[in-house]
Each structure stands twice: as C-alpha cells, then as structure tokens.
TrEMBL record:
InterPro entries: ADH-like_C, ADH-like_N, ADH_Zn_CS, GroES-like_sf, NAD(P)-bd_dom_sf
Family: Belongs to the zinc-containing alcohol dehydrogenase family.
Domain of life: Bacteria
Species of provenance: Streptomyces ruber
Cofactors demanded by this protein: Zn(2+)
Keyword Zinc set for record: yes
Alcohol dehydrogenase-like N-terminal domain span: 31-151
Protein name in UniProt: L-idonate 5-dehydrogenase
Amino acid sequence: MTSRTNPGMKAVVVHGPGDLRIDERARPVPGPGEVLMAMEWGGICGSDLAYWRNGASGTASLAHPLVLGHEVAGRIAGLGEGVTGLHEGQPVTVHPAQLVGDGVLPERIAGRTNLYPHVRYFGSAAFDPHTDGGFSEYRTVPAAQIRPLPDGVGTEQGALAEPLAVALHAVGRVPELRGRTVLVNGCGPIGSLVAAAARHRGAGTVIASDLSAASLAVARAMGADETRDLRGGDALPEDVDIVFEASGAAAALGGVLRATARGGILVQVGNLPGTAVPAVLGDLVTREITWIGSYRFVEEIDDALLALRDGLDVSPLITHRFPLERAAEALAVAADPASGSSKVMLRLAAGT
C-alpha cells in the first residue's frame, strides 16, 4: 500500500523460474545526481527471457525478486539535486551499465569499459542486491547514464538504442567494412540489427542466414541484400570476407567457419553456451580465420542514437506490442519460435 504523498507504480518483476508478476511498488524519488524517468517503452531481450524461464541468465542467478528490462526509454519526470543539462519532459534512453569500483583497466584494454570485471547492469542479478531494470512505470537513474534522444527519434525507437549499440560494437570490431561482403548467421533481433549496422557502415553486400523464414524477412527489411533459409534447403555462401555469428548455437560454428574466406574474419556476437558442447572448429586453423569476440558495447549507444537520427529504421524489427499489464503474454510470445516474433515491445506507460 502506497501513501498519497508517494503514489504507487507498477513493475514487471520476476520472482523465480516461471514466476512473473506485476507488482505494485512505491514510486521512487530521485536523490542527488539522479533523474526520475517516466518509462514509456521497453524491449524484451534474451536475458529477460532467461530470468523468467530459468531464474538465471548466464552465471547470474536470482536471489531476490528482480525488475526486468534494460532496453528502455521514456521522459524525465524529475531531477535530483545537482543535476544540470537535463529538463523535465525531455525524451531519453539509458546506458544500462554502471562500473563498480575505481573503474581502472589495464593499459592494454584502456577505455574498453565493457570488459571491466564488475558492472551493474539494468535488470541483472549479477550482484546482490540485484540491479532492478526499467520495466516499470518509473525508475530513478544516475544522470551520467541518461542519454537524451535526438530530435525526430521517438521513445519507442530510443528503447532500441541499446541493442543497436550492441550491433554497432560488433560491426566496429572489424577494422574496415566498407565495400566488403558480409554474412550474418542468426537473424534474431541482434542479428537483424547487425545486418542494419553493417549496411549503415557501408558494407557492400549483406547476406543473412537463419532457420526461420520469418526472421529472414525481418533481416531483409533491415538491410540484408540476400537471405539463406537453412531449414528450407539453402546452403551458406562460400568464401565470405567477414562473418558475424549471431545465433549463439555451437552446432552452427562448423558451417560458419567453413563459410568464412581463408584469412577472413569471424565476429562472435551470439552468446555461446557456458558449458562444454561439441563443435567443429578445424577450419579455424587451416583457413587462418581471425575469430573475434564481441561483448555488449562501450559508448556506441551514442552512435546508435546518431544512426537513428540519420535514418536507420528499426521499425521492421518490432513485430509485437503489449501493455505492461500483459508482460507475461509478451514474454511468452518473445520466447516462442512459432510466434514469428522478432522484437517484442512493452508499453510501460498508458497512452504511449
């Protein structure tokens, strides 16, 4: 029960495996250096699904109830003491990562804050207490994590700046992309965004491959020139200069390595399993392939906002929209391969 002076709000909270609730919580009040956001849109990510289905994402397990969501945008509803350069009503998104500790990295990876070992991330159980996400009607956020949306970029688009930043970081792991042939294997939301990011960064030809015709249709709408339906009998292309592996399926690695040109580059975007799995990796050596990992992003969320401003259209990615109260249904649709979903969005405030 909330008081009249501190009204309540709704939040999407996972309490354990399969236990998702719309909880009533007190509306937060911004402290010094914080901003109060009135949330408008949130995108459902694979980690949200993992917490809901398994009570864990990667090595992070629920010890307490957790508000989900790290792909969010809304408007500023209040400013804490000492916050300058922002104003109420301003549309914004969030850089969901906050370093814990002194933030110092070894010189060899200076500036690569995505590799810092202790990071609080929106909607993550990696720390205890957990870091609540943004699938709620309101959320206080340190002002340093706020990113204003450019003119012409709405809050629904702004909520997808975070996954677009992941894609731009992956594309940026390749020294030179312009004019080159690119294969994206795995066309879920991140893979389709990688196709869009590669196109935005000047790739010559973008080929997309997947087991799902619906996913391939999204990838084509997001900028792929060609698609390969692997379940429908298509084969992966041969001798591709640059390959982005976005499925995270260990069973796909053998074929993907064989598709990579001798001396080519393979960027691993999809999270591979944390347990031992069989994989055919011989071509990594005999074809002298450079295999590069790509993890989250540094400040590419700023690049993502500029790309959205400049016309990169993420709307084909959005296949479903649900109100906050139907979050359980939204997650079920996002988790069901038969639903044909790509990015499932939550309306976090009425009227958006």
